Amino acid sequence: MTKKMITNRVAFLDKKIPIYASILGVAGVLIVWEIICSLHIVSPLFLPAPSAIVTTGWNMLLSGEILKNLIPSLYRIGIGYVIGSVVGIVVGLLLGFSKWADAIGTPIVYSIYPIPKIALLPLFVLWLGIGELSKVTIISLGVFFPVVINTYSGVKNVDPILIKAAVTFGSNHLNVIRKVILPGSLPMIFAGLKLAAGTSLLLLVAAEMIAAQSGIGSMVLHYGNLMITTKLMVGVLVLSLLGLAFNRFLQWVENRLLPWK
Amino acid sequence: MRIVIDNVGKKFKKSKKEETTALEDINFIIHEKEFVVLVGPSGCGKSTLLNIVGGLLSPSSGSIYFEDMEDENKDPSVSIVFQEIALLPWRTVYQNVIYGLEEKKMSKREQMEKGDYYIDMVGLSEFKHAYPKQLSGGMKQRVGIGRALAVEPDLLLMDEPFSALDAQTRTLMQEELLTIWNRTQLSTLYVTHNIEEAVYLADRVIVLSRHPGRIKEIISIDLPKMGRGEAKYRAQFDQYAEQIWQLIRQDAVEALKE
User: B100–A170: do the CB atoms touch at under 8 Å?
Assistant: First the structure.
């Protein structure tokens, strides 16, 4: 008599991958890159080696050059991001909650939304001058739209039965917004905030390349013009780390605020 | 005190010209400490009626009012246990239960006392700080009941509260509800489509017909409030259930065809 065993045919669905797998990919790319450069297959003018970028970066950090450019950038993106997201959340809640605001405001939002925001920079420079204000404004505007649109759909997705329950237990309109609609749309708001983080970084660099004496964006452009590719790549590295840190920070705040998820 | 449902009717607009009558000529009174159960086939408008009584829907005609309130200056309070349970997922068990107390602007101390008292009553003391997603269906609805009781309402509305639960949990929850009800003695309006549940819980059963929803009959259940499931009442219990089933049967068959 032969035995025919039944095996789990969907085992591949919950296959466990070791943690080092994700590091493996990044390390592999870096090693190949380093080898290509050390074999002089590509000129360092076009592609500097990772080791050269890191050492140059370290020296630039010690000389204070990175900090000198990083601080104005952080200042611009920080202020622009906070203003854009706060206004975006408030406006999004209003548009989602009040039928009047929805009818009047939503068409306005959706008609401005498709404009690539960087196209408005010359206009803002004209209006607000070449200083910090025009850069902060363009970043706020770029952040505002993804946040407002996500907040709006977050509000629309709050289960009406929760609003009914809150009203049944005595909530007025303000408390319905504060205790039900705001926490209920928070997951969507965070999705918007993460989307906006990328947009804000893009606008920061673009604005600094067009009109700034300091900032990581202007540093990258400056070394590009001088064809000092290694220092250019240091700028790119700083931007990528900035984006990474930004995302991690938002993830951390989200985990703190949404323990019920 | 009593709650009067006075000539209530409800029409829904189907399209621009067409209207459907969901409820018509609904008249009854819920007395103090009375447990009234609405039963009817699906589509008879029982949930619509409950929503109107709860102030979540306006009637097309008629009105609902409280009479002979002990404190004439106080607005009557009504709380609802929802079929969908409707707990706020970002609030813990405790925070959900005290929601109504918070909105009444009670002191933190009172909130804590009442919160703990009612969480204990629904048997969830161990899970006070858990979030709804960590609880089973039956436990979630206990929180829903705790939240409704905590405000100590003049009228408690329950909209098929156990319909989402499995049969075993449901039986246990019915028993528990009776025990809790015995302690609080709240005037209650309870909606269900389950006839056994109606006979098990009610002082009076109101049977609704469909298209339009009207009161077909009001039946007083003449059995002791506790222990109706015992063998000695079996015959009477079944008789009531059979009587109600005969009233509903024709409508239920028609409901199936839709």
Answer: yes
